[in-house]
Amino acid sequence: MANEDQFKKVISHAKEYGYVFQSSEIYDGLSAVYDYAQNGAELKKNIRDYWWKAMVQMNENIVGIDSAIFMHPTIWKASGHVDAFNDPLIDNKDSKKRYRADVLIEDYCAKIEGKIDKEVAKAEKRFGEAFNKEEFVSTNPRVVGYQEKITEILARMGKSLEAEDLVDVKALIEELEIADPLTGSRNWTEVKQFNLMFGTKLGASAEHAMDLYLRPETAQGIFVNFLNVQKSGRMKIPFGIAQTGKAFRNEIVARQFIFRMREFEQMEMQFFIKPGTQKEWFEYWKETRMKWHLSLGMNADNYRFHDHDKLAHYADAATDIEFKFPFGFKELEGIHSRTDFDLKQHEEFSGKKLQYFDHEDNASYTPYVLETSIGLDRMFLAVFSNSLVEEELENNTTRTVLKLPAVLAPVKAAILPLVKKDGLPEIARQIFEDLKWDFNVDYDEKDAVGRRYRRQDANGTPFCITVDHDTLEDNTVTIRHRDTMEQKRVKIADLKDIIKAEVDVKHWLQKM
Fold first, then answer.
1. Lower CB count within 10 Å: N or C terminus of the chain?
2. Which of 20, 161, 95, 14 is nearest to 458 (CA)?
3. Which of 161, 194, 227 is the last residue of a domain?
4. Angle CA(295)–CA(297)–CA(301) in degrees, nearest 5?
5. Annotated binding site for substrate: which residue ranges?
6. What share of the chain in percent tops pLDDT 70?
7. How many domains does the chain divide into?
8. Which residue, among 1, 3, 4, 43, has the nearest Cα to 20 in the 3D structure?
9. Distance CA 119, CA 14 (A)
10. Tell me: the pLDDT tens digits for 457-475?
11. Does a structural domain hold residue 1?
12. What SS3 state is found at 355?
């Protein structure tokens, strides 16, 4: 299945099965704004909870907060967002469409990566089990040439953006003959910087209102609460503060479904450390965060690290964990060594001291910060798109199945009476009432049982529990596993333990 076709199926499936709807759809929608539907809200919550348990509950020295979306406007001056939170914008004179210049270049490189994938696929087919992908990628002249070209392009772009040499960014677009994706036109304007923050006002009347911004990230709410948390929690360095919440960015081109939106949710943790220890903590959190992703069993080949060519103004090291979405490898999570930039900036702009007194050294210092930041919506898309598959069955039919990690699945089990008579619905209802205290479960009695199985497969439900006439005799039911379609006869009394063994967070996080 072509990647573009697969992505269309992802979007369609998300709507059909109650995961994601276009916001304000009956009014023709709002560009790049989406609503999470009944199943989407559950999946999103489960991802958030999985992150929170791993980050906060499992770490004695990490605590969570929930800071306000509205913050004092000087915070964004101190953080650099007012002056430097920009993306490079370019317009096509013929189509009148607006693009991010860096994304146009990255998409060009993604097409070269697609050529590499094709070369690998051909070689894999040719050599079969003897194929060594790592050796092929590092030695095949064509593939090596492609990789060198990608590296050269991205390095030049990063250097130009860091130096704010927007003339060279445009020159690179022209040299690569990058065209408007919609029209093929290469008639471009100059590249300009575009600030991404949404402005708003706070006050009862227009003349006395204060200019505010919708926060573009959740991190600053952590930094300005650093001292409050440290003192009230008697925290000793190293320690972390975690937060999940909404952020808002006026993206130039918000696209690719929920991958890039104007209203989105972040899951961030700022880890406060002693200056000089940032390299070891950077490596620690790189490894730890990758283990968290891999614990969900979504294939290690779908992940890779990408070190930044252009560092943010506050960072001395930065890498992304990229995921292979249907439209290619893209950033999923960022890990940044932010130095002491943020706390020192807030000290300067607020006039308040934001330092830590280290009793072991008998000295005060401004802590350095190691950040992990993941987009919850992007994680949702990574999980959903990776899980949606079409399978060819032995009887020459196909089934669409959403193989969500069981720990994240919105509905853990569906209880199905074989027929709507003979007392079977009553037993099924009792099972539903018993299990709902521990799991989110569904009751389904409409249509033939085979059709109900297919419906639950497509919805991502890990287990189907069928109550039949034998249940009346021996208090057993058939439990069917979504991924293998294997069916077993089990006692009703054992259902809770069987389901828990598959969906319990502990079972999954212990893989880390």
1. N
2. 14
3. 194
4. 110
5. 100, 217, 264-268, 371-375
6. 99
7. 2
8. 43
9. 32
10. 999 999 999 999 999 999 9
11. no
12. coil
CA distances from 273 to 343, 369, 373, 471 (A): 12, 6, 17, 59
The residue assigned the tokens 């697609």 is 114
Residue 186 half-sphere exposure, CB side, CA atoms within 13 Å? 10
Binding residues for ATP: 249-251, 259-264, 331-332, 375-378
Confidence of residue 235 (pLDDT cuts 50, 70, 90): very high
The CATH number linked to 491 is 3.40.50.800
Q: Distance between CA atoms of 129 and 473, rounded to whole angstroms?
A: 51
Q: Is residue 209 part of a domain?
A: no
pLDDT at 2: 58
Q: Is there a contact between 498 and 434 (Cβ–Cβ < 8 Å)?
A: no
Residue 423 lies in a domain: yes
Average per-residue pLDDT in the chain?
93
pLDDT digit string, tens, across residues 377-399: 999 999 999 999 999 888 888 99
Boundary residue ending a domain (178, 194, 210): 194
Q: What is the mean pLDDT of residues 83-97?
A: 87
Q: What is the pLDDT of residue 237?
A: 95
Burial (CB count within 10 angstroms: exposed 0-12, middle 13-18, buried 19+), residue 285: buried
- Which token pair is 452? 């109900």
C-beta of residue 419 within 8 angstroms of C-beta of residue 452: no
Quote the domain boundaries for residue 456: 411-509
Distance CA 252, CA 503 (A): 40
169 SS3 class: helix
Give how far Cα 498 sits from Cα of 25, 348, 404, 437, 495, Å.
41, 57, 18, 15, 5
Could you tell me which residues are annotated as the binding site? 100, 217, 249-251, 259-268, 331-332, 371-378
pLDDT value of residue 104: 93
pLDDT category at 1 given cuts 50, 70, 90 is: very low
How confident is the model over 195-217, as a mean pLDDT? Answer: 85
Q: How far apart are CA 200 and CA 217, in angstroms?
A: 16
Nearest to 218 by CA among 70, 368, 50, 317: 70
pTM for the full model?
0.85
Cα–Cα distance between 177 and 171 in angstroms, integer?
Answer: 10
442 lies in some domain = yes
